[in-house]
Amino acid sequence: MDRLISSTKNPKVKQARKLWQRRQRDEQNLFLIEGYRELLRASEGGQPLEMLFVAPELFLGANETKLIEKLTRRGTELLQCSERVFRSLSYRDRPDGLLAIAPKQSRSLEDLKPSETPLFVVAEAIEKPGNLGTIMRSADAVGVDGVIVCDRCTDITNPNVVRASVGTLFTLPVVETTTDETLHWLKERGVKIVASTPSAQALYTEVDLSGPVAVVVGTEQYGLSERWLEEADLLVRIPMNGHADSLNVAMATTLLLYEALRQKTKECVR
Known about the structure:
single chain
């Protein structure tokens, strides 16, 4: 490891800061991963890292050194920073002293390996990074076969997607593609398309979700596009008994996924 980086004008620090911007992430094909949990899951998921910035004064636990050693053995360049420099890199209010630059990796629909009765999440044009990351976190908890991000508004490597996913972005099969390609792929494989919309008649607990299913959710403001609503095999709604007419998209996705898991688990027990 080279000497301590104490200047925010260091070229590698300046490069990392540029990656806060989507345009720079796209141009350089790189992105940032910050935090012990996120980097641990990146390591577990086989995500390569190019550089790792560390500030030991900010470490929150006793396991950081072990993770750093594991990452450097894989060829990651280690760069120790002063606390001031690290804080200039961090996009968190309470940084924990670990931040990496990583190359983007892409998957196609053909890379997905569905189980016998697969469960997918299709997220159409989700706008808010925190919502997309939370959808990934719930998808990981349920054990879905893949998350398909259609017609993206939010870059899946946005730092707030990485953070909200708590690193499950790296342990889940996540694909970015178009609506046309996704519809063709799902229908070709006999996967039932279940679209959530407040105008549906059927409650989500009243339909059969035990077979091959893709749960489709849409934008925060407008919901799913007409295309998805027309192509869906089932339209379902979540009951809303108060004044609000809908749930946050990530909360709604979580409910739908756990209902599918409940039905699939029940079917397996029979």
